[in-house]
């Protein structure tokens, strides 16, 4: 059966877009391929991004870095697990 090359090209591009969207949906539905070591996340293009960049590029969320009380206890950093308000109150 004869085919129109332009129509075939359009259909292939549409199919590729559908596959890309399916990959994005699976990521957004809760399955985030995450590196066990560095916690980077593999996106729908199979590229790895740091967690902070991945979330910031898809949401209006930004990160504020601090140290949790458990890590502060392990490192011996007394001020690390406290909020700025707690640090001011202790001063």
Helices and strands in order:
Blueprint (H helix, E strand, L loop, with lengths): L4 H24 L12 E2 L5 E2 L1 H8 L10 H7 L8 H7 L1
Give your account of this protein's structure.
With 91 residues, the protein is mainly alpha-helical. It is 51% helix and 4% strand. The protein has four helices and two strands. Strand 1 (41-42) and strand 2 (48-49) form a beta hairpin. It is rod-shaped, with a radius of gyration of 23 Å. The model has no long low-confidence stretch (mean pLDDT 83).
Helix content: 40-55%
Major beta sheet summary: 2 strands, antiparallel
Topology pattern, helix = H, strand = E: HEEHHH
Share of residues in strands: under 5%
Mean pLDDT: 83
Q: How many helix segments?
A: 4
User: Low-confidence parts, pLDDT < 50 over ≥5 residues?
Assistant: none
Tell me the distance between the termini: 83 Å
Counting DSSP E segments of at least 2 residues, the number of strands comes to 2
Structural class, judged by helices and strands?
Answer: mainly alpha
Shape field: rod-shaped
Across the major sheet, the strand order is 1-2
Radius of gyration: 23 Å
Features:
mainly alpha, 2 strands, 51% helix
Concise summary:
By secondary structure, the chain is mainly alpha-helical. The chain has four helices and two strands; from the N terminus they run αββααα. Strands 1-2 form a two-stranded antiparallel sheet.
